[in-house]
Design brief:
Layout lengths: L1 E9 L8 E9 L2 E7 L9 E12 L1 E6 L18 H17 L2 E6 L6 H10 L7 E4 L3 E3 L9 E3 L3 H14 L3 E5 L18 H13 L3 E6 L2 H10 L3 E4 L6 H10 L2 E3 L2 H9 L7 H23 L3 E2 L18 H7 L4 H7 L2 H6 L17 E5 L12 E6 L2 E5 L2 E2 L5
Parallel strand pairs: 1-4, 5-6, 6-7, 8-9, 10-11, 11-12, 12-13, 13-14
Antiparallel strand pairs: 1-2, 2-3, 4-15, 15-16, 16-17, 17-18
Length: 403
């Protein structure tokens, strides 16, 4: 299948200035040519004319819980919910994400390893959804943050075995819950849980098998331990009054995935259904998270966009809102778009295939109505979605089987 996109405006994901009047030609699953408007001759191609709109790479959300119910408080009880219900919800959530312009996600903790099955079903064309880089279950201490979507492990040997189990089950990445968090009833946000030796055991085992490590780390000690051990990304982060951690983040080129929205929605939205302790935790964490984000941004840290979709009030079909929270906290709109495209692809190890609109790369492309550089919320006005060269949304109409 050939597709010719006649773009009124192109933001290519590299950070270069937007370009006007560009034609993009897609053959099969890849971009094969870019040229000034009218220079390409492809009479047999399906034409998508986007005058007045903006063409961008598909959005990459680097922190998603695909089977969570964002209805306040519901995801805490996932360990009591039937596996089938979680799987059904996951299918629905993946459909919503693709329709909203999210073409690739990294899943970081899912009960029963359901995200591995979602990934495979999407690859096989059984269900529509974004491309998944999947962690399966995470790894936490006994009763630690995220234990209900994790393998509980205490001590380096148990952690090593948990990593090996994740690899055996088909995980693409390893997720560690290094510190306490907001929504788990036991534990305090930022409190160290996995210790340095346990994190190092996980990193060593993952590296032997070519896998990357994502680390939930909110407190100073946990963040610094994770960085010393050599993880690939700090999820949430803590770079307030933590010069040592910030220096390590920059020196090692580790990514920060701040997930500002996850805290803000709990702290500043109606408390209906959210436990009082969680609201208190979120208000405390939000302060450290946003100040730390600004510190990391000012220091030139590598930042990727992750929404933590599935947490309270955090709908999968609107995870693009995280870009607005990043902009509200000091990031330029173009930088935010790069965080959600090129940087996301680099973090996931897919930079040679995805993240920018360049000849030879996979055709993951969205069209948004308006200019997200002047108003970042326009990134949510998605009219067209192409993934792997297949049109899944055309003129605002979602086509699960391809348009």
């Amino acid at each position: 299948m050939s597709i010719l996109i006649r773009a009124g405006c192109v933001i290519d994901g590299t950070g270069s200035p937007a370009r006007e009047d560009v034609d993009l030609l897609i053959e099969g699953s890849r971009i094969v040519e870019l040229a000034p408007k009218g220079k390409l001759n492809a009479p047999q191609a399906t034409l998508i004319d986007t005058a007045g709109a903006t063409v961008l790479p598909g959005i990459i959300d680097a922190h998603v819980h695909p089977c969570f119910d964002p209805e306040p408080g519901n995801h805490i009880s996932v360990s009591d919910e039937p596996m089938a219900m979680q799987a059904i919800r996951g299918v629905s959530n993946m459909r919503a994400m693709l329709a909203s312009g999210i073409t690739t996600i990294r899943t970081l903790g899912t009960a029963y390893d359901l995200d591995l099955s979602l990934r495979d079903a999407i690859r096989q064309g059984v269900i529509p959804g974004p491309r998944l880089v999947a962690a399966g279950r995470g790894i936490s201490i006994t009763g630690g943050h995220g234990f209900y979507i994790s393998m509980e492990a205490d001590g380096p040997e148990q952690v090593r075995k948990a990593v090996r189990t994740a690899i055996k089950n088909g995980a693409d990445i390893i997720k560690l819950f290094v510190t306490g968090g907001v929504m788990t009833p036991c534990g305090i946000p930022g409190t160290p849980q996995l210790d340095l030796e346990e994190i190092e055991a996980a990193v060593l085992e993952a590296r032997k098998n070519g896998l990357r490590i994502a680390s939930h780390a909110e407190g100073k000690q946990g963040v610094n331990d994770a960085l010393v051990a050599g993880v690939d990304s700090i999820e949430h982060g803590y770079f307030t009054d933590n010069d040592e951690g910030l220096a390590l983040l920059i020196e090692r080129g580790t990514y920060l995935v701040p997930t500002i929205m996850a805290y803000d929605l709990i702290a500043n939205t109606s408390d209906l259904g959210v436990p009082a302790d969680a609201i208190k935790n979120a208000k405390m964490a939000l302060k450290y998270n946003t100040v730390g984000f600004r510190n990391a941004l000012d220091a030139g840290a590598k930042i990727a966009m992750g929404s933590d979709a599935g947490t309270a009030f955090n709908d999968h079909g609107r995870s693009w809102r995280e870009l607005g929270f990043m902009v509200d906290n000091g990031m330029e709109p173009m930088h935010a778009i790069v965080a959600a495209t090129r940087n996301g692809a680099d973090l996931l190890g897919l930079g040679k295939q995805l993240g920018t609109l360049e000849v030879g790369k996979l055709a993951d492309i969205i069209v948004v109505d308006g200019d997200p550089l002047s108003e970042i919320a326009q990134i949510g006005n998605v009219t067209d979605v192409i993934k792997d060269g297949t049109i899944y949304k055309r003129d605002g109409v979602f086509c699960p089987e391809g348009c």
